[in-house]
Amino acid sequence: MSLDAVLQTFYIEAQEHLESMENMLLKMDEGECDDEMLNDIFRSAHTIKGSAGIFGLDHIVNFTHVVENVLDRARDNEIDIDKNLIDVIFKCRDHMQSLVAVSLDEYNAQTDLQKTDSDLLAALAPWTSTENKQTVAQNNTPAESQLDNKLTNEGDNENLWHISLRLSTDCLRNGMDPLSFIKFLSSLGEIKHIETIIDNFPQVDNFDAESLYFAYEIALQSDASLEEIENTFMFVQDDSDITILPPTAKIDDYLLLIDKLPEENQRLGDILVNCGSLTRHSLEQALIAQSTVITATGEQTVTPKLGELLTEQNKVSESIVSAALTKQKQNKSQVSEGKQIRIDSNRLDHLINLIGELVINQQRIELLSKGVKKPQLTEAVDDFENFTNQIRDAALSLRMVAIGGTFQRFKRLVRDTAQELGKEVELTIDGADTELDRLMVEKLGDPLTHIVRNAMDHGLESIEDRQAAGKNTKGQLKLAAYHEGGHIVIAISDDGNGINKERIREKAIEKGIINTDSKLSDNELFHLIFHPGFSTAAEVTNLSGRGVGMDVVKRNVEALQGSIDISSQAGKGSEFKIRLPLTLAIIDGFHVEAKGTHFIIPQATIIECINLANHQDIKGRHCINLRGEMIPYLNMSEIFKLTPSREQTLADNIIQHSPKRELVIVQFGSDVAGIAVDTLNGEIQTVVKPLGPIFKALKGIGGSSLLGNGEIAFILDVPQLIELAIANEIASKVSRAESMNGQ
After folding, report:
1. Which of 28, 83, 172, 266 is deepest in the core (most CB within 10 A)?
2. What is the pLDDT of residues 164-178, one digit of tens each?
3. 636: Cβ contacts below 8 Å, ≥ 6 apart
4. What single DSSP character describes residue 408?
5. Are 529 and 675 within one domain?
6. How far apart are CA 331 and CA 38, in angstroms?
7. Helices 111-124 and 83-100, interaxial angle, to 10°?
8. pLDDT exceeding 90 applies to what percent of the chain?
9. CA–CA distance, 594 with 120 (Å, rounded to integer)
10. Domain end residue (candidates: 94, 113, 140)
11. Sites of the modification Phosphohistidine (predicted)?
């Protein structure tokens, strides 16, 4: 594995640990503090520090080390976790995220990061011990000096670990520095001795400067756990030979190590003695005992298992060993059942594209088979279609992720924004396990952020105003996700004072968006807030007042083939509902034609299909009376100014009348409209292809697709078409009213 790939893994895992730290801190801030949460935060900080130390990222190690020490004191009940400390740890966590994002050279060049570093270390001072403060000062000295100090210190041999290190010969070639591992080990304790083994060093003629020929035997005195020491080598352990013997290791364990390593036994024994891991007497006695491999009864000796050794030495009771083995079996079973692997998102997208091509070819084969009319071929094509559908669903499920991860990030946003506004806000999350396409989740961050901040700034009242209104002083903000009619709905609601309709109307008239005599429904009035530059804020603040944000929300949601509904009640609160398709890659659609042009309507939006000629068409209006309800509709040939192809014109002349017109009734949210077409071709699975830049401004088209016969079909943007149909109907009403007034 190359250094770049290993570093990328470090960045990904560091981000996961930082997110875990934030989630635990949020729970602690809400009063759910317990030892396990504190241990989780400590482990996350410790792992980040350890991984950073391997790569020589001293700016991360030095800062995180102080944070880790404060957390360790809290774990030992030397200091109390209060709100002030949580606030500082939050800031430290954010700074750690900034440090992870820059290299050591970039950090040394950025004075603002260094100042933040110093400010936060000063903020942590009340919770650091005298020993920790000395450690902070030592962190400012070069790492080599610290290592030299560790090597020259003398002490007892308690908690002495022995580490046998045989790194891969490609270690240097992959960008790994053996010294960085040794440096980090020195941060876990005191390195008593290092023996560098050069037995494998080649002759000058065979020397390769990029190959590692050294091996190391290290004696480490440390209170660290085996897992912590093993994590030092996490990025090289797959292709290296690393043995870690704990302080409680028996002489037999050292003998097994000596036998396993390629160097001469006597030489390795001397190295272990020099390291202080063994005494000369123990080594000699063990080597003599090892020479007798056959017992008096003639049976070969068997090395006892670890559990047996621990029981014989009275260090662990037999019942505890038995329980540990049972737990170990359970853990192995759980790991084997729920293994997870990391997949590059680009590879996953490539797989989806290939499956899209498979779907298109399956449709092509189906069309060809209909002309042959052979039962066996038809059966084979049906089976092929079934398998294709299963492969498609399985592949799409790989891109589906729970929205809970996105929702969780807003806990921190709500906390910080509430503090900035001086408000009390409680965030409730519902439907966190609802899944949708990964690409959509990534693009939802900005729209949701704008809506949440808008709700906290404009919707939720101040503590004083809520008290005056007889409400709980803590405002309620809710994020919810659920399925509805083949779509995903994401709802953001609050129990604030609602949207001031009169204020919106006044502002819209002031900006010339509407006329003073315009009559708008509540829904139309609410949607004016999405107009670019529109804001009802009395003054510009850090959060609002510039009219930037809500127009971005609408644009981003529409780019995802979604729509937004707004409902509000004065004094009771507001709710924004974002409706989105389940996926943007492969959809179930309905194939229609207008003037020889192919269109696909998303299946989930269709209510029914009717013959337009059999229903009353209101004269002068694109509107029909459907079972007592007036439904506006659009004529596709008029909207897109389509002209019939030469073949269709000839066919119409032969029939001597225009083809019958069909109407597809569609619904998105609470809005209903019709789409008038010439031909209904039926259901179809279609692969969504993005439009080129030249078509970006084309309203009503959300993408394109390739049909099985090789022709191109346009995928309709139903929310935009419904909006256009309703707007046309309103315009026709206004036109008729003006005409009547003129008469």
Report:
1. 28
2. 888 888 877 777 777
3. 592, 594, 595, 597, 599, 642, 675, 676, 677
4. H
5. no
6. 23
7. 150
8. 11
9. 66
10. 140
11. 46
